[in-house]
């Protein structure tokens, strides 16, 4: 491995040295999380892309197919719409 630097042993050694202290970063993260700024930053590129394509910023309709809902991991079976009668009718 000639030409490569030594491997950093800790996360602190790999973090950029020009970042503010961790406490300051967390302070702003918490402020933005609590006032909704983080969600706006997350949503803004999607809104802009939709408007650029002539669509409304927020979709008015979302379509989910039931196969995806039935197969989703962690979804309780009582909420998927597959009752006992439906399962036995298919068998």
Per-chain topology:
Elements: H1 11-14, H2 22-35, H3 37-52, H4 66-71, H5 84-90
Task: Please supply descriptive tags for the structure shown above.
mainly alpha
Question: How would you briefly describe this protein structure?
Answer:
With about 90 residues, the protein is mainly α.
Describe this protein's structure.
It is a single chain. By secondary structure, this protein is mainly alpha-helical. Helix content is 52%, strand content 0%. The radius of gyration is 24 Å and the shape is extended.
What structural class do helix, strand and pairing data support? Answer: mainly alpha
Distance between the termini: 60 Å
**SSE sequence, one letter per element:** HHHHH
What is the residue-mean pLDDT, rounded to a whole number? Answer: 74
- Strand tally is 0
Cα gyration radius (Å): 24 Å
State the major sheet: none
Give the overall shape.
extended
Q: Specify the number of helices.
A: 5
Q: In terms of per-residue confidence, which ranges show pLDDT below 50 for 5 or more consecutive residues? A: none
Q: Work out the helicity level.
A: 40-55%
Q: How much of the residues is beta strand, in percent?
A: under 5%
């Amino acid at each position: 491995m000639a030409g490569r630097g030594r491997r950093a042993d800790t996360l602190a050694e790999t973090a950029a040295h020009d970042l503010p202290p961790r406490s300051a970063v967390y302070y702003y993260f918490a402020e933005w999380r609590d006032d909704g700024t983080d969600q706006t930053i997350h949503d803004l590129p999607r809104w802009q892309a939709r408007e650029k394509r002539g669509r409304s910023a927020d979709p008015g309709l979302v379509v989910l197919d039931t196969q995806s809902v039935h197969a989703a991991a962690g979804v309780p079976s009582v909420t998927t719409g597959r009752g006992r009668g439906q399962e036995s009718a298919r068998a």
